[in-house]
Amino acid sequence: MGQRSAMQPSTLELAHNARVALDDVQLQRALAGLPGGLVAQRAAARDRLPEFEALREVGRDIRNHALAHLDLYLEAYESNAAAAGAVVHWAETPREANDIILRLCREAGARLVAKGKSMISEEIGLNAHLEAAGLEIVETDLGEYILQIRHETPSHIIAPAIHLTQEQVEADFRRQHAHLPTDRRLVEPAELVGEARAVLREKFLAADVGITGANFLVAETGSSIIVTNEGNGDLSQSLPRMHIVIASIDKVVPTLEDVTTLLRLLARSATGQEITSYTTFSTGPRRPSDEDGPASYHVVLLDNGRAELLGTELREVLRCIRCGACMNHCPVYNAIGGHAYGWVYPGPIGAVLTPALIGVEQGGNLASASTFCGRCESVCPMKIPLPKLMRHWREAEFDAGGGKRGFRAGLAAWAYLARRPRLYHLLARFAAAGLGALGRRRGAFSWLPLAGGWTRHRDLPAPQGRTFQQLWSERERGVS
Amino acid sequence: MTSRTAILAHVRASLGISPRTDPRGATVAARLADRPRHLIPERAAKPRTALLAQFRDFLRAQPADVIEAASNEAVPEAIAEALRAADLPPRVRMGRDPVLAAMPWERAASLERRFGPAEPADEVGLSRALAGVSETGTLVLASGADNPVTLAFLPPVHVVVVAEADIVGCYEDAFAIVRKSFGARQMPRTLNLVSGPSRTADIGGRIVIGAHGPRRLVVVIVGEPAPPGA
Fold this sequence. Notes:
heterodimer; B: alpha/beta; six-stranded parallel sheet; four-stranded mixed sheet; 6 helices; globular
């Protein structure tokens, strides 16, 4: 699970992955910090900004506008970026994007590549592609670096190593940094950070190419934007002689005024910060009079299914600004972590995006990793109706023949009844009366056929004898 | 067909647009030309004194060190004093910013200045911010020979000079200053919004100040000259 070299999804093993995750003591310890951490911090940031809820509506409208004019804004972006000296490349598929980036690295005579955090690079399996060609890739975001030396993938889109405890990281550093004294102190998080800083500094200075993602592209100015806290992305893109940006086509927004609204929502939704330490707008390569910065600047625009998605009822998912709030607030994600989802994007956004990108046969089942409690939608800064979109995939997966035979038969039986309300009410009445009589003494069942999934962990309260429909119609008639 | 053509055609097909009868061009042109402002938080529209106080409060919370200088003439000594107080060597790396260059550096004779982009051994980078943004305590830095971008990220300490007169309420006002300095649709190679020292929470979810960028951010706020006759 979570091997960086293998981008093969393990989405179909969701149930198994979840069971393993629930029994993983370290993982459960690591996840326990979420409610008091990112969730509480977001709530505090929202409360400090009275306009927050109103901004969500504005943000949603900006993204809808950008997507409805996506082709035109992409053309404007390209033209303004090129005017500033950027070279813009277009890639329909991951393979094409990987090939372009490898070619650029070769043109730069690169041996060492410093990488900022980029989920798109995970999506296309960029590291494996470049490594297979003999390049050394160093992830410089601290969380990503830890995962790279563990040969794992991110389990969260903004806090990639959230599944790990400090003790695990210490063990990794002692193993990986074997050249350092074995008796050194690595007790405080600051000591671990300091060690990574020293090790990675050498890499920043030696790197030939820097690769970053982009949180946004600005059509007005032809700029790409990264939103970070560590400063690694800025070092990655300022010190090497070539800067390559990999971004999906949905990242473009019209103007700087549009970006500011999204920036006011992004950090607050993600980490509860007012704004991150660094928001960097990059436009073209270094100017003739500049004394630092990259000599060349390339942007690779990746489609990988997004243009197709734009024409479907899932279009709203393209508004996503990758803050991670949906997963932080998801009871299922909080219980099983990100790796159990089996591909690049976990949590509610992953359940919607994954089947769209790798196919319903592979990813359609992720929508079952939801209680449909709706918390994700209620915190999404872009107001994406995630439960509605997950419901779409549940239906699509069923139509495509997904799910186990017993589950499909049960669902078909239920559908048969649901379409015949009289029969449904009659049977419900029998069931409620029967179970009510059977369970009258204890008031609950510790075991019931077909309900083992529930009763293994808790009792099922016995019905009181009449159905909701019965009680309702009696109430309507004024009977008590 | 190139990938560019294919992607754009695919987008248009998904949107149900026929290029020949596309009515959207005017909308997009107007949006890019007019750049309408959206909802701006009220905290960005406070009276001037409250705006300046808010800027300082957000900086301190990040946490940044806030140093006051009464005027440009007082900046060199203020920086020398700040470095001394923090037990740092009296040496800064800086660009050719004309405003910084015009300051009376002879008043801080012990302070050594080196010029050009940051080098690995530099301990203190010195930049001048184009603007400050009160709504989040954000510094706006434009890269170039005046203020090389590496000064803001490579040295462990970053000192930023910002004039009180350049502190505005919201990001939009700061972009107006950028457009005035560089021209409409023009940008420096990097425009850096800096809001605190570098930090990470990637180890056990606990915030550590000082990740890959500066461990310490020192902001020197230069007071507004008193109005004549005051």
